[in-house]
Design goal:
The complex is a heterodimer of chains A (354) and B (266). Chain A is 25% helix and 36% strand. Chain A is an alpha+beta fold. Chain A folds into two domains: 214 residues, P-loop containing nucleotide triphosphate hydrolases (Rossmann fold), CATH 3.40.50.300; 118 residues, Beta Barrel (OB fold (Dihydrolipoamide Acetyltransferase, E2P)). Chain A has a six-stranded mixed sheet with strand order 7-8-9-3-10-11, sandwiched between helices. A five-stranded antiparallel sheet of chain A has the order 2-1-4-5-6, covered by helices on one side. Chain A has a five-stranded antiparallel sheet with strand order 14-13-12-15-21. In chain A, a hairpin with a 5-residue loop joins β12 and β13. Chain A starts with a strand and ends with a strand. Chain B is mostly helical and 266 residues long. Chain B has two domains: 31 residues; 222 residues, Orthogonal Bundle (MetI-like fold). Chain B is built from 13 helices and no strands. Chain B is globular. The chains are: A alpha+beta (354), B mainly alpha (266). The interface between A and B is medium-sized, with 28 and 19 residues.
């Protein structure tokens, strides 16, 4: 378990937030740029001392401003992946990875580094210089370097944002398997809610230095605590396996049952996203004659007013969210337990390879 | 002829004048006397002594500058503290100080009657009019060249590299040695080359603080001055050696300053 509580002022910005990652779990911290999310990571790693705060790892106190305890970063054992990766330009790739392994002999360090590079599929780059690598390769080296000394916590600052869209899909897949295998707590910072939903077990949404809501991605999307969270969480995300369908469309067999159609061309494991305001609700069993291609049966779980809209959290095989008007809520008698038919258009369905 | 071309011609004329004026003395050193004569003048034991002394004293001064100046430059580059601007200005002051002022100042401070010189002399260390005094004078005038170069080089090292090093288990000292210094090395070496160039050419402060005694405090520039009236060829020969040396240093500094060239050469 890694718990970070901090209150600190940076210029006219005030951070006042607490987050916690369970052992073996990944807590995502999602928010717009300038919301203070990277500052929380720096405090966790000991790179920044807040004016008030506590950082606790398991039963070990890393920082407590009340008692004056402040463990140096080198003694905390955090595997930190920086936003721009911060690879040492004057060292070869393997030396970067072996940097944190100084208790071992040179031969042993090289062997460990090669092993890790091999695992990330870049064994051939051991003697390359970081400047010659592509974005995706750098990200893998940074990950290998952070994992090499067997860190006690993982801190990931926008690990995918420096990558182009194509590389990001495969990097995201690799990263999520690394996070699944890791038995240590992980904090992951991102400005992209979809990324937070895919990589984090739980998501804390941060805005203006404060955590505005915390929960699973499904909970946040279904019952956002504020209009900000509603807008920020944006799309509903479901996972499935895509295959070619009729008429040039893609059919996604959703994990847990059901299927959906999209105009995006993808095959294999995908994340499917659709905006809540694209989703229409009808009485259960009604089969609309409209142009929507996608229909799922679902049960209403939550009904949350957000400004002049209402967010309806729905339980199907995977949770999803619709946004409707107050009038529609009355007309359909929407309340927890009511069954409805959910529909949306194939053209409103975005697919991202996983 | 259009007005634009007339102006361009004026610019070229100005550059031609600058170039002619600045290179003429250097060309003259090499053409006034034949290369054979210059080489044979270098056989003079006094000339060899002066060059040897210059080499020894400048290298000693550089060693002191690097050992003390590198951590100082790192501190100036990576931390903020009250009065930092004042400290930086004070460190840079010898850059613009007239060498004669430096010499007089060193005498007033470290000379036999100086404010610190008395106690030092009581401890058995003589600086004024000794080889050690030459090293002191060279260190004083050349240190800011290195410290400035190293400070800029350290400041341009990516801060996240230093932070990454800390999270990977390296202490601040180890981060300084393993990441900051290697990453800043090209800039530090460029500063070192400029400092060496300044030290080799030092004249005024050395003459005033250490005097001009053959084999003891008479460095190459002082030897040139002494031979002007008696053996002009020997003076020219020494000058020629210094020109070649200084040009090589300038070239090194330029190449190191241009990171692309350095990276391509790796």
């Amino acid at each position: 378990m890694l718990r970070v509580e901090a209150r600190t002022r940076l210029g006219d910005f005030e951070l006042d937030a607490a987050v916690e990652a369970p052992a073996g779990g990944c807590q995502a911290i999602a928010g717009p740029s300038g919301s203070g999310k990277s500052t929380l990571l720096r405090i966790a790693a000991g790179l920044l001392r807040p004016s008030q705060g506590r950082v606790v790892h398991g039963d070990e106190v890393w920082l407590d401003t009340a008692t004056g305890r402040n463990l140096a970063p080198e003694l905390r054992g955090c595997g930190y992946v920086f936003q721009d990766y911060a690879l040492f330009g004057h060292m070869q790739v393997w030396q970067n990875v072996a940097y944190g392994l100084r208790s071992l002999s040179r031969g042993e360090r090289r062997r460990r580094a090669d092993e890790l590079l091999e695992r990330f599929g870049i064994g051939g780059l051991a003697t390359a210089r970081p400047a010659t690598l592509s974005g995706g390769e750098r990200q893998r080296v940074a990950l290998a370097r952070a994992l090499a000394p067997a860190p006690r916590a993982l801190l990931l600052d926008e690990p995918l944002s420096a990558l182009d869209a194509r590389t990001r899909a495969s990097a995201s897949r690799e990263l999520s398997s690394v996070l699944r295998e890791a038995s240590v707590p992980a904090l992951l910072v991102t400005h992209d809610f979809t990324e937070a939903a895919v990589l984090g077990d739980r998501v804390a949404v941060i805005d203006g230095g404060r955590i505005v809501q915390e929960g699973t991605a499904g909970e946040l999307a279904a019952s956002p605590a504020s209009a900000f969270v509603a807008d920020f969480t944006g799309a509903v995300v479901m996972t499935g396996v895509a295959r070619e369908g009729a008429g040039g469309l893609t059919v996604v067999d959703l994990d847990g049952g059901g299927s959906a159609t999209s105009t995006d061309q993808r095959t294999g494991p995908v994340a499917l996203s659709v905006h809540p305001w694209e989703i229409a609700l009808e009485p259960a069993g009604a089969h609309a004659e409209g142009s929507a291609q996608n229909h799922l049966q679902a049960e209403v779980v939550t009904v949350t007013e957000v400004g002049n809209r209402v967010r309806v959290g729905l339980a199907a095989a995977q949770p999803l969210v619709a946004e409707v008007t107050r009038a529609a809520v009355g007309g359909l008698h929407l309340e927890p337990g009511v069954r409805v038919t959910v529909s949306w258009k194939a053209t409103a369905t975005r697919l991202v390879s996983l | 002829m259009s007005r634009g071309r007339g102006f361009a011609a004026l610019l070229f004329l100005a550059l031609a004048l600058v170039l002619a004026f600045l290179t003429l003395p250097i060309v003259a050193i090499f053409v006034r006397t034949s290369p054979g004569e210059l080489l044979s003048a270098l056989d003079d034991p006094g000339v060899v002594d002066a060059l040897w002394l210059s080499l020894r004293t400048t290298l000693t001064a550089l060693a002191i500058i690097v050992v003390v100046g590198t951590p100082a430059a790192y501190l100036l580059a990576t931390r903020t503290f009250r009065g930092k601007a004042v400290v930086t200005t004070l460190v840079e002051l010898p850059l613009v100080l007239p060498p004669a002022v430096a010499g007089v100042g060193l005498l007033a401070a470290l000379g036999p009657a100086g404010i610190v010189g008395g106690p030092i002399e009581d401890a058995g260390i003589r600086l004024a009019l000794e080889t050690a005094g030459v090293v002191v004078a060279l260190t004083f005038v050349a240190a800011p060249f290195f410290i400035r170069g190293a400070q800029v080089a350290f400041a341009s090292v990516d801060r996240t590299w230093l932070e990454a090093s800390r999270t990977l288990g390296a202490s601040e000292a180890r981060t300084f040695l393993r990441v900051a210094i290697p990453a800043a090395a090209p800039g530090m070496l460029a500063g070192l080359a400029l400092a060496w160039g300044r030290a080799v050419g030092e004249f005024g402060a050395t003459l005033i603080f250490a005097g001009s005694f053959r084999g003891r405090t008479q460095t190459a520039p002082l030897a040139i001055y002494e031979r002007l009236g008696t053996d002009f060829t020997a003076a020219l020969a020494l000058a020629a050696v210094l020109v070649v040396f200084s040009a090589a240093l300038l070239l090194t500094a330029k190449l190191l300053g241009n990171r692309e060239v350095v990276d391509a050469a790796r």
